[in-house]
Amino acid sequence: MKVLINSLLQPELLSYLNMEMTPYQLSNNTPLTLSPNFILPEDKRPDLSEVLPSDSIPIIDLNDRDIDDGQGPSPLVSKISQACEEYGFFQIINHGVPKELCQKLLAVVTEFFQLPPEERAQYLTKDHSKQVKVFNYYQKYEGIGKVTMWSETFSHPWHSTEDFAHLLPTNPPQYREVFAEYARAIGVLFDRLLSLISQGLGLDKDCLKRRIGEKPGLNTQANYYPACPDPELTMGMPDHNDLGSITVLLQVEGVTGLQVIKDGKWLTVDPVPDAFVINLADQTQVLSNGKFKSVEHRAVTNKFLPRLSLGMFYNPNYDTVIGPIEDLIDEEHPSKYRKYSFKEYMEEFYRQQGKRRRVKEAFELQR
Ligand code: OGA
Ligand code: NI
Predict the structure, then answer these.
(1) What distance in angstroms lies between residue 170's CA and the mean position of ligand 2's atoms?
(2) pLDDT digits (tens, 9 = 90+) for 12-49
(3) Which family does it belong to (predicted)?
(4) Which atom of ligand 1 is the closest one to the Cα of 297?
């Protein structure tokens, strides 16, 4: 016992414990502690004992047979189309993006979140049209007010043109370079995925990409979830649907947090080594006239380890008109959504800020 106490009092250990006990400091200078503004009302808590394991979320090998032999969809296309219909979520392996690159990226992004808060604070803004920003998710609850999520998010464009690179951090020093390389690789992957999903709908390979349109809005969101002393009381990211076409999400290995809805129950999406999580977003649901699903998901916190995820988004630009693709509409499948510009869609999104968002529903045709 004495030995144990002695060893506990060693200065290095004390400083380590102290480091572990010091709450993460958000960029707005708030410490992340279990104070009331981070604690969810009882009926909004994640109820982790009810969450199911992720066994069933499809893991698709992009090296699977993908030959168009004129006999209908290839085995790969069939798998993708089934996953898009049933889950709206799947993981991909053998996707062509080098493992080392993903690791380098997660390392620089982690370093970013570990910068002193005053350095990250230069990216804080209330203006949602700002392209490069740090923010904290929150939800408003009646009678309680604003509850801040247990996370911090850094978002910026990812297309590899010159016009935004100068806005990205110079600290960590490798941030720009690693990001540019990652963005190039993910650009190639998006093209492949959009083509596979188009084929999964029985459409030409380039159909979805064409409909999402010229000059897509490409942005990324890095989410940092510090360890939380009691994950039952907090949420890292509230339930939401992604807004664009599809999302390519990279998550650190060994720390769970992402969950999706399937048949009314939450399922965890555990990290699979060297995989990306792919989820369909709202515009793909609308373009497919509801055949493929944009599914609700959320991120819960972890008691022992911080978690990092990075989503790459591919959105239409504001002027693009979105609506169900005509080839998918017939008497049996009447159009479920009205046409709208993506600008209208985003305006509706911001109108629902802080609330439980139901953006798609606002564009459904009544019948
Ligand atoms: C997102 C998202 C989930 C996660 O950024 O849209 O859903 O696992 N992230 O962090
Ligand atoms: Ni999401």
Answers:
(1) 27
(2) 544 444 445 689 999 999 999 999 999 999 999 999 99
(3) Belongs to the iron/ascorbate-dependent oxidoreductase family.
(4) 7
